[in-house]
Design a protein that fits this description.
By secondary structure, the chain is an alpha/beta fold. It folds into 2 domains: 4-119, no CATH class; 129-239, Rossmann fold, CATH 3.40.50. Helix content is 51%, strand content 14%. The chain is built from 13 helices and 8 strands. Strands 2-1-3-4 form a 4-stranded parallel sheet, sandwiched between helices. Helix 5 (79-92) runs antiparallel to helix 6 and helix 11 crosses helix 12. The protein is globular.
Amino acid sequence: MSTRVSLFVTCIVDQVFPQVGIAITQVLERLGYQVDFPEAQTCCGQPAFNSGYPDEARTIARHFLDVFRDAEYIIVPSGSCASMISHHFADIFEHDPKLLAEARALSPRVWEFSRFLLEVAGVDDVGARFDGVVTYHDSCHALRELRIKAGPRKLLAKVQGLTLAEMDVAEECCGFGGTFSVKFPEVSGAMARTKIDSIQKTGASTIVSIDSSCLMQLQGVIDRAGLPIRTLHLAEVLASR
């Protein structure tokens, strides 16, 4: 009998990059998992939380707990959203003992996609093939809050035909930062251009990350500059045959 996992698709993937959710489902199903998509899901509450609206964030987080209460594994295609749920729900519910206990009970069941593959499924080779040179961008929340660094690179190393070329500023922020890019567009744009300069030096034609929001930021700068570089979520590379 296959293990059932629940996909929390995130706002960015749901509204802008649905192909990432499809790719994750394809990879998981190939590994024998049954993927459940709770249609009542909405947001993790991070935009409201980061913008200084704790009450609104608490309402959204409470709904998340209701929707995923019975899930055995919650797969998240974003280090940012996974960190919000597993780390900051405790901040949101610190004055509500009942919901705080629920959030703490839920946290160990929340898995960023690449970490789930390596630590739960126990695989680093999913049978993918992707011809070309890629470079990997470490997103801030995944790297600094979830300590995800080697894992995605280990998965990429097993992809046939793929060459990984590291950039010299792989760990630097892309400049998105959610509402940061709206509030401080000049700084955000400058940070993104620094990343693009580094990416060009690698000779890579594809940028890979585990956060679609970062890739959206970088693709915008790339498109405006007319550069022949594309961005792909790790799941899209792993789903390739």
